[in-house]
Specification:
heterodimer, A: 2 domains, seven-stranded mixed β-sheet, B: alpha/beta, Aconitase, domain 3
């Protein structure tokens, strides 16, 4: 996984509440058996005027010019500004894969759905929850100023605006550590292999019906 | 010892390691696998040269992509017309063969939607931790299990380590006391809960559903309620173990029997919240107050009782909510202020992990028996949740009831709930659907979904518009 320390980048809007993972990456693209290549289909139904198919060359498709991500001013954005309950619905990890593949390293919103929030951290994407009033203010500042950039500093847990304002954010320690170091958490967990084995041994005695039934 | 909630007990029972940074290593008893969210996880295992930690903890079944038309289905995996769907199902077959995991084949009578199959086979049991790369894994909480959806990285993590790194959630109790009116079902209950707390109301919580209405409910009904916990924002929903649970589990293929059953039953009897246990949030509803529910918009919280009228954006003060309602009405092609009973579905879908169990099919069949689907309905699909459900329904003659009414009787799978196979809505079409999500494009691009109970979907199929099934 790509480590995340500090990201300075252009900010783009996804200005609606309850953006679900079906909207982030529609179901037809879930048929892929790969982890990469979802970027061109991020927000597919909003970005294009036609119905997208897996494996299609998206550069030939008609763009929805009213969708902000297609505006020239937001090209190259790496920070997505969003509203309440971002990432609700399906557990598909294809949603953060698509965001990451498109070039987003960070999503800022007032709140996130639990599964999506967790999936982001596994893919080098940092979700930051800030209070609703602050997010609204960032939206206003972004709309008012073309080329609006933010700096997100995970080490110091703060977002820095162009005016130099520093906005602190919360993130739990384990997730922060893994993201800062770009760690593979399976490798970390396997360091606890002995603890897992001794738990299993205890449970085999206590609850034998949990073992060796499906085979 | 202080009083514990059901969630506290399940958490405690599976705690392998509590870490200083607040995270915890939680043991996973059962991992369910389907074809959509697993291929990248198996690929990850291969790349790292890892093997599954415990083969017998896994059970795989293809469901999302499988065709439900009998002719296409009869040819097995090789006959799946869509090459991309076929490859995904084949990939599941190959991965399970390579890693020696148990899988139900596409035409095995035990195949079906993973959340119908687990409880039906006794593969998910009370007291277990159950995960699957699918958000509706919350369904299994109905058995008194700690069950939730995970992403593909976590699928790989569970395969490789039999554990997950978790943070403990807060406890929420949703208590529904009193009694339901005749014609009002589990689906209406959970839609009413979502309407009350919103789609983010349960975020950060594990929900326990309790109260007389839940106690009186069948296991199928409890599964419907827990299934849609995720639509209320909670990754997991659960119900305490009681006689209803134990009667359901007893005799299932993978459930314990004999002496081991007695041992298990004794342990399972403790799976309830203790008297005086602390909940961080409590939500209360009265069963009598719940009417049949219909969603009108593009989020499950956009729901109204059958006698309701659509909201008028002009009368909404909050600007973000006003924008959301305006956009939803436009997407749905519905007029502000119009009656729910004026909505006319083009298609009807009875199925999905929410409502495709035998009780759901009986409920729908009772409504359409001896009647005909309205001429204005282009298609009415009935898709059983598993091969076992299909067999049982056919033994009871329910398939004939549906076919005589002009409905299509299909093979088991996820089908039109998310339109990954050939079953989907056309642009602008309205659907009375027993599934769980009414998001834009969920059932097909431009499709307009109305979430309802099986009885309400069946009544709308006959009437050609939504009607109050209490008057049926």
């Amino acid at each position: 996984m790509k480590a995340f320390t500090v990201e300075t980048g252009l900010v783009a809007p996804m200005d609606r509440a309850n953006v679900d993972t079906d909207l982030i990456i529609p179901k037809q693209f879930l048929k892929s058996i790969k982890r990469s290549g979802f970027g061109p289909n991020l927000f597919d139904e909003l970005r294009y005027l036609d119905e997208g198919q897996p494996g299609e060359d998206c550069s030939q498709r008609p763009l929805n010019t009213e969708f902000p991500l297609n505006f020239p001013r937001y090209q190259g954005a790496s920070i997505l500004l969003a509203r309440e309950n971002f990432g609700c619905g399906s557990s598909r990890e294809h949603a953060p894969w698509a965001l990451e593949d498109y070039g987003f390293r960070c999503v800022i919103a007032p709140s996130f759905a639990d599964i999506f929030y967790n999936n982001c951290f596994k893919n080098g994407v940092l979700p930051i929850a800030l209070d609703g009033a602050t997010v609204s203010r960032l939206f206003d500042e972004m709309y008012a100023s073309e080329g609006y950039q933010l700096t997100v500093d995970l080490r110091q847990q703060k977002v820095v605006t162009p005016s130099g304002e520093e906005i602190p954010f919360e993130v739990d320690e384990f997730r922060r550590h893994c993201l800062l170091e770009g760690l593979d958490d399976i490798g970390l967990t396997l360091k606890s292999a002995d603890a897992i084995r001794s738990y299993e041994q205890k449970m085999r005695q206590q609850s034998p019906w949990l073992f060796d039934v499906i085979k | 010892m202080s009083a514990k909630t059901l969630y506290d007990k399940l958490w405690q029972n599976h705690l392998v390691e509590q870490r200083e940074d607040g995270s915890a290593l939680i043991y996973i008893d059962r991992h369910l696998i389907h074809e959509v969210t697993s291929p990248q996880a198996f690929e990850g295992l291969r790349l790292a040269g890892r093997q599954p930690w415990r083969r017998d903890a896994n059970l795989a079944v293809p469901d999302h992509n499988v065709p439900t038309e009998s002719a296409e289905r009869a040819g097995g995996v090789a006959a799946i017309a869509d090459p991309v769907s076929r490859l995904q199902v084949q990939t599941l077959d190959e991965n399970c063969a390579d890693f020696d995991l148990v899988k139900f084949d596409i035409n095995d009578v035990r195949q079906g939607i993973v959340h119908v199959v687990g409880p039906e086979q006794g593969a998910t049991l009370p007291g277990m931790t159950v995960v699957c790369g699918d958000s509706h894994t919350s369904t299994h909480g109905a058995l008194g299990a700690l069950a939730h959806g995970i992403g593909t990285s976590e699928v790989e993590h569970v395969l490789a380590t039999q554990t997950l790194i978790q943070q403990k959630m807060r406890n929420m109790l949703v208590r529904i006391d009193g009694r339901l009116q005749p014609g009002v079902t589990a689906k209406d209950v959970v839609l009413a809960v979502i309407g009350k707390i919103g789609t983010a109301g349960g975020t950060g919580y594990a929900i326990e559903f309790g109260g007389q209405v839940i106690r009186d409910m069948s296991m199928e009904g409890r599964m419907t309620v827990c299934n849609m916990s995720i639509e209320a924002g909670a990754r997991m929903g659960m119900v305490a173990v009681d006689d209803t649970t134990l009667e359901y589990v007893k005799g299932r293929a993978y459930a314990p029997s004999g002496k081991m059953w007695e041992q298990a039953e004794a342990a399972w009897r403790d799976l309830h919240s203790d008297e005086g246990a602390h909940f961080d949030a409590i939500v209360e509803l009265r069963g009598e107050d719940i009417k049949p529910q219909v969603t009108w918009g593009t989020s499950p919280e956009m729901v109204l009782p059958i006698d309701g009228y659509l909201p008028e954006p002009d009368s909404i003060e909050d600007s973000s909510r006003k924008a959301a309602v305006t956009r939803a009405l436009e997407y749905m092609g519905l007029a502000a202020g119009s009656a729910i009973t004026d909505i006319r579905p083009d298609r009807v879908f009875i199925g999905s992990c929410t409502n495709s169990r035998i009780e759901d099919l009986r409920e729908a069949a009772a409504v359409v028996k001896g009647k005909k689907v309205a001429d204005s309905i282009k298609q009415a699909l009935v898709v059983p949740g598993s091969g076992e459900v299909k067999k049982q329904a056919e033994a009871e003659g329910l398939d004939q009831v549906f076919i005589e009414a002009g409905m299509e009787w299909r093979e088991p799978g996820c089908s039109m709930c998310l339109a990954m196979n050939a079953d989907k809505l056309g642009p602008g079409e309205h659907c009375a659907s027993t599934s769980n999500r009414n998001f834009e494009g969920r059932q097909g691009i431009g499709g307009r979904t109305h979430l309802v109970s099986p009885a309400m979907a069946a009544a709308a199929a006959v009437a050609g518009h939504f009607v109050d099934v209490r008057d049926w």
